[in-house]
Design goal:
4 copies of one chain form a homotetramer. Chain A is mainly α. Chain A contains 3 helices and no strands.
Chain lengths: 93, 93, 93, 93
């Protein structure tokens, strides 16, 4: 059981849509579409990926991290440190 | 002819790799992989998309924008404004 | 008592340094320094601000959020939702 | 003469406002204000800095880069490469 288990369908739906956007990008490049239009589509795919990341992170905090804290012990600290590192990677990416 | 025409193979190679990463993400979610590992993979795909965007933007400035400026006229201003807007979308995404 | 109470000196030291960078930016503009050098300094101040944000967020999760979860009740959910919103703002800014 | 010369007053006004925000942040920390409120203010200062960067970059492309291209020669390529690097730093910060 993970944080995202309850939202699995929604996560998968979003990821399939992003996969479609990335395939759409390949077609745009094949068709020699205008650079700026390709860039607009990339920004849109990037934002969509960030949306999935924020959703997963929220689920992770609400479930995995919250449970580890409620249980207590060493695992809670590790989970919090891990979450902080994941947040830092997201903010910097 | 677009800015990226000369780098088309490289752009397509990167986009196919990103498509593979997004499909890999779907498999990770299917397999109930740990949230943090999914997030790490999302950060990696986001960075890869940004890399493609920066490459296309560089090509666009070096070719389309530079040519419009060298030719002069109204088109040059429009191309510069357009590029600035694309940069703003990238910085904010 | 807040998450950052123990790191207050470090947070203030960083914020004073960022204030100095922003004043430095004003001087650069006054002195008509080259645009690209000004931009480099802005990127550096932005990264420094993000660093403070990540530090505060980590402290917040480790203390305020962890305590609310350990105590349980409605406050824990509110703190988690609040933290997720703050993370989303950071990722998008 | 730089790209931002015509907007110097506006740039300085924004930078002074950002300096005020960073000083406000120090006061918030001194006053032990709630972490999330400090984070919200940091996101706001970060966005404001990005706004100044995008303004300077736009001015830089419209003036310095456009003039170098119109003049032609080696300087044009260098200015374009330099601008691309500055954009990459901004996108990544």
């Amino acid at each position: 059981m993970h944080g995202y288990t309850q939202n699995k369908d929604e996560v998968q739906k979003r990821l399939r849509r992003i996969e479609g956007q990335v395939r759409g990008l390949q077609k745009m490049v094949d068709d020699d579409r205008y650079c700026i239009d390709v860039l607009t589509q990339i920004s849109s795919a990037t934002k969509a990926l960030e949306g999935v990341a924020l959703m997963l992170l929220d689920d992770h905090l609400q479930h995995c991290v919250a449970e580890a804290i409620a249980t207590g012990g060493v695992d809670a600290n590790q989970k919090l440190t891990e979450a902080s590192h994941a947040i830092a990677r997201l903010v910097k990416s």
